[in-house]
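This part of the workshop introduces the protein records we will be handling. A learned vocabulary of local backbone shapes supplies the integers on the structure line. Getting from the letters to the tokens is the skill we practise here. As an example, a complete record with its sequence and its structure tokens follows.
=====
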Amino acid sequence: MTIIVALLLFSAIVFIHELGHFLFAKMNGIKVHEFSIGMGPKIYSIKKDTDYSIRLLPIGGFVSMEGEDEDSKDPRSFGEKSILQRASVIFAGPFFNIIFTIILFIPIFLFMGNQTTTLAGVAENGPAYQAGIRVGDTIEAVNGEQVKTWQDVIQSLNESDGSELKLSIDRNGKNEELTVTPEKNAEGRYVIGIETKVERNLFASIKNAFATTWDMIVQMVTFLGQLVTGTVPGGVGNSVTGPLGVINIVSQAAKVGIINVMYIAAVISLNLGIINLVPLPALDGGRLLMLAIEAIRGGKKIDPNKEAMINMVGLGALMLFMVFITYKDILRLF
């Protein structure tokens, strides 16, 4: 059952991606031959201007546009549209994945509550209590740097390396400067014995959803940079997960509850969106790069056959990489 949940979840995320391409293609007057949910043989379809179909394998979907991978003089073909129009269609897929991530995070934070920099607990005899910090205090800055989220506070503590910190505290509308020295706990993290106050409101959840999504984008871009430079901690094989690994992660999350599944879905959706923007052949980022080259050449189009060949080589390389990652997934599973 959990495997079915994982497959449906992955399909839903890919569907959102393809929906972005589809809607922007329609908005720009591009003829869409087929909009499919799933892959493999058709099991149901409705034929209008576009063939809306459901296919047997729930592992994604696709959008087939006129003139997308071949030369076509049809006024409604993809290739006959302006560079900006084509770029918007390509970018819409990853963009929809990013928006979907934010949408998923909002109910997650609404359910879990939003961590604030106001303190709900201070451990007696802990570093914070000894420094004079009390329940109800709001941490506004650490060593002169403003903190906006609880994660900022935690990060400042971890980066202190046990050195003395100056905290700016708001207490009943009055600002106080207190000095505290973090101590290392059993897990190897630096703490001062404080607990965050959790609030549940829609506005804070929306704000937190945007902030968390942005933080994750920064982390993913940093990781991609490490991937290119070969400086990934633990090696590529141990840091990247393929379809089997994703199914296993979702299956484990499904056993815990719907909130965990939604969180994993948000992470996968964002990964799909960001990775697709990498300027490699066969990815949306690669196609955007081709359009950028076309723009630099003053609108002179790249030979469709050459572009198709580049995308074919890129797809082959991605498939080989996927085989390698799947092999690593199998080793981890067994």
In short: The longest helix spans residues 83-112.
